[in-house]
TrEMBL record:
Subunit structure: Homotrimer.
Natural source organism: Halarcobacter anaerophilus
Top EC category: transferase
EC code: 2.3.1.191
Pathway assigned in UniProt: Bacterial outer membrane biogenesis; LPS lipid A biosynthesis
Reaction(s) the record says it catalyses: a UDP-3-O-[(3R)-3-hydroxyacyl]-alpha-D-glucosamine + a (3R)-hydroxyacyl-[ACP] = a UDP-2-N,3-O-bis[(3R)-3-hydroxyacyl]-alpha-D-glucosamine + holo-[ACP] + H(+)
PANTHER family, per database record: UDP-3-O-ACYLGLUCOSAMINE N-ACYLTRANSFERASE, UDP-3-O-ACYLGLUCOSAMINE N-ACYLTRANSFERASE 1, MITOCHONDRIAL-RELATED
NCBIfam families the UniProt entry points to: lipid_A_lpxD, PRK00892.1
Gene behind the chain: lpxD
MF-aspect GO terms: N-acyltransferase activity; UDP-3-O-[(3R)-3-hydroxyacyl]-glucosamine N-acyltransferase activity
Domain UDP-3-O-[3-hydroxymyristoyl] glucosamine N-acyltransferase non-repeat region: 18-86
Stated role: Catalyzes the N-acylation of UDP-3-O-acylglucosamine using 3-hydroxyacyl-ACP as the acyl donor. Is involved in the biosynthesis of lipid A, a phosphorylated glycolipid that anchors the lipopolysaccharide to the outer membrane of the cell.
Keyword entries, A-Z: Acyltransferase, Lipid A biosynthesis, Lipid biosynthesis, Lipid metabolism, Repeat, Transferase
Name of the molecule in the record: UDP-3-O-acylglucosamine N-acyltransferase
Amino acid sequence: MKLNEIAKALNLECESEVEISGLNSLLDSNENELSFLENKKYAHDLEKTKAAAVFVKKEVALKVPENCIALICDEPYLTLAYASKLFAPKLIETKGSDCIVKDNTIIMDNVHLGKNSTIGENCTIMSGVFIGDNVQIGDNTVIYPNVSIYRDCKVGNNCIIHAGTVIGSDGFGFAHTKDGKYIKIYQNGNVVIGNDVEIGANCSIDRAVFKSTILSDRVRLDNLIHIAHNCKLGEGCILTGQVGLSGSTTLHEYVIMGGQSATAGHLEIAAFTTIAARGGVTKSITTPKKQWAGFPLFEHRQWLKLQGKIAKLLK
């Protein structure tokens, strides 16, 4: 869409006819994308942005770079929510090519194959699977019954996805008006899954708001795991039953998380970290190869000592 058309739809003032291809974060935007700044603590990102235009409040408009257009509004995050609907793709494509299924792939009965999708060689797709539009699935992948893979998602080679898992469902994103009404932020990204990944039963992996939620090669997920929008899992991460990752969490290589452990959003966990069962991560972990436990989080050895002292108090 042209920027002036977007502005008109949002009741903002702008005469520029620059073409806007989509929405993105400040640091990831290119010269054809639109971004926003709501929280002042990210003002330093505004100075570095390459976005064509940015939704900003009036008081920070002067900090917008010369090559970027300030779209002044009272509530940039709410305005972004309204703008996201303008770029949301169709739920179902009615035009396009039929799904391409390559050699030696078995497709059982009652499988939906979306438009413009591709399934590689030697795959097995079991009954009840939904594969949306523009989905890519690599070679030698097994998808068990009743798995749903939403549009635009990608699955690599040699993957196993167990029954009931949903890949590419909407992330939990809303902005609210001053009177408390929640406005949906349309999740216009996708999910990208690497090679040799195994995903257990009844997991939910949300698509990104912008760009991709990423599971790198050799990740292993147990059953009943939730991965929120824009998370990134490095190579070889292992998540056991009922782990939950909040949005924009980054796990570096070979992180292990025990059952029912969880993270707050927008943090990073260093490589080769272990989080014990029911551990709650509320801040980034920057030192690799350490073990942690509890909530609030302690180094594992300290946590064991603490539990011992508490036990003595009860005697």
